[in-house]
Write a structure and sequence with these properties.
This protein is α+β, with helices and mostly antiparallel strands and 166 residues long. The chain has a domain at 70-142: GMP Synthetase, Chain A, domain 3, CATH 3.30.300. Helices cover 43% and strands 11% of the residues. It contains six helices and three strands, in the order H-H-H-H-H-E-E-H-E. Strand 2, helix 6 (110-130) and strand 3 (138-142) form a beta-alpha-beta unit. It is elongated, with a radius of gyration of 38 Å. The termini are far apart. Pfam families: DciA. InterPro entries: DciA-like. Residues 12-28 have a biased composition (Low complexity).
């Protein structure tokens, strides 16, 4: 009488592994198939046009192909004003408009407007060096604007009815 011992978990696992190996060996081996499309050519050690590109390079190519260089230079003047003229000057003035090469800068006080008029050649030199010489050709500095007495579509030239003060 032979006693059969109960199957151990390792024996069950070994039998399952042998069955899987036998099934795998009976299947045909897959062959390498070429994916339809153009044949890939390698660009060598340098990145090619179809390789991932840095975002800055892609944006520069887009700006160049769309001819947005002038618009980006104008945007640089307004967007990087503090970095272009320095934080001390930028804290007391702001660029308002840029038309036909003339940059209108509004100062926070008349004293700063006078100081900026004296610094205009230096500021223009910084702008020429950073942005380019053809973007900003003149700098016009104005002080803060006072409130207007003119109200409504009809007004009188001069001081009008308020000339009887005092």
């Amino acid at each position: 009488m032979s006693e059969e011992r109960p199957a151990r978990p390792s024996d069950i696992a070994r039998a399952a592994l042998e069955a899987a190996r036998a099934a795998s060996a009976s299947r045909p081996r897959p062959t390498r198939r070429r994916i339809a499309g153009p044949k890939r050519t390698w660009s060598g050690p340098r990145p090619g046009d179809d390789d991932p590109q840095p975002l800055a390079r892609l944006v520069d190519n887009l700006v160049r192909t769309q001819d947005w260089t002038e618009h980006t230079k104008v945007g640089t003047v307004f967007g990087r004003w503090s970095a272009l003229v320095g934080p001390d000057i930028a804290a007391h003035c702001a660029p308002q408009t840029l038309t036909e090469g003339e940059l209108l800068v509004v100062a926070e006080s008349t004293a700063w407007a006078t100081q900026l008029r004296l610094l205009a050649p230096t500021i223009l030199a910084k702008l020429h060096a950073s942005v380019g010489g053809d973007v900003v050709t003149r700098l016009r500095v104005v002080g803060p604007t006072a409130p207007s007495w003119k109200k409504g579509p009809r007004s009188v030239r001069g001081r009008g009815p308020r000339d009887t003060y005092g």
